[in-house]
Amino acid sequence: MVQKIEVIGLGAGDIDQLPLGIYKKLTNTTKEIYVRTMKHPVIEALQAEGVSFVSFDEVYESKEHFRDIYQEITEKLVEHSLESPVIYAVPGHPMLAEKTVQLLLERNDTAVTVAGGQSYLDDLFTGLAIDPIDGFQFVDATSFKRSQLDYQHHIIFCQVYDRFIASEVKLELLEDLPADYQITIVEAAGSNQEKMTTIPLTELDHVMEISNLTSVYIPPVPQKQLHHTFNRLREVIAELRGTKGCPWDKEQTHESLREYAIEEVYELIDAIDAGDDEGIIEELGDLLLQVMLHSQIGEDSGYFTVDDVIKSITDKMIHRHPHVFGDKKADSIADVYTNWDALKQEEKGKQRKSVLDGVPKRIPALAKAYQLQKKAAKVGFEWENIDGVWEKLNEELAEVQEAIGEANQEEIERELGDVLFVLANISRYYKVNPEIALNRTNQKFISRFSYIEKRLHEENKDINQASLREMDEYWNQAKVEE
Predict the structure, then answer these.
(1) pTM (whole model) above 0.70
(2) In the prediction, which pLDDT does 191 show?
């Protein structure tokens, strides 16, 4: 049997704003009227005329999360409707920011009708003197994500019931806005108790008058305060390559930018190795710049945009992590690798004919050796244990010595290449990237040799005239200081 629930909106103001038809329906009923909350000016006026109400205010006190509150109210309403049709009254308009109404409408066992209720948005726009045609966002303060906020337009937070919610809103906004950014607290919009107070953002949860009739208005944010947002970065890059942009940026192509991408990656690695957080921030920014420039070139050419780039990586991450976004299980990192490789093969299978395909052509030789052996190992082409690799290294070193004895330069080059290839394999066994390991050693050499130069300079000695013994002594001092 389908149960009947009639939802009536009490409007945003006092009883004088209540439509005559709704007023008659409420005052002529002999049944108790269920209300989400008694905290509304119309209810007090109707009680004075003998209308009886039953509220769900106690549910707010018994539940910790709003989703649980709304769910329980919905269940109780349906339960009461089993006995007889129910009238359920809510503040404002039933279809505006009323989660309980949405939950009721989603049910198949309940016939829900909606009547009356003036939205308070008209009064809010009038009081704030803003035109919604400029763009505005209506946000439920009890359930929103910072990433959803569009600061370039008007933002209105509803459901700011208490200081706790006000504090949560403030903390999220402070991630993007300065503490002194001016916002407006709106109380009882459209009623004779309407009050608007403009304050700095940081004082939001200090306001004494916070109730279920409280809203918070965030005016559009100037561009200069949005430099940390992705959309602003995208606008800047588009302007740089626009008709009135920078001559250098406008001339760039995918090909001309290749060298910069390589440089930025290595500069990022340097910052990471140095443990320099500020440097990491700067170099990641430079790397992101490369992504944005290539994406803008693609957009200018009509081939792709940064949205395509983001969609590609998002789709890939979701597809390759079924243990997070799907129903597959991965209890260890080894399981993750197994799933990843299988899914990658599924994606690339039609494009790649060899197991070794997919290693970048221009990757440094040592890193390439590491990647090639890593791919071969995945199909079982590797030594049974590390002992065999060490034996192979000794074998290759002996062959280098033999080539040197024969003074065969071409053979020396080949055999030294074999030694480096085996060393890359040893690195793989010990889960060390040889390119990173060698780069760290290079930096260590630079540091120690610079120490030698510094000490010799302090003694007014020419490094070209210094003996190996002197330099070796300073080298050892540098090691000790490290």
Answers:
(1) no
(2) 76
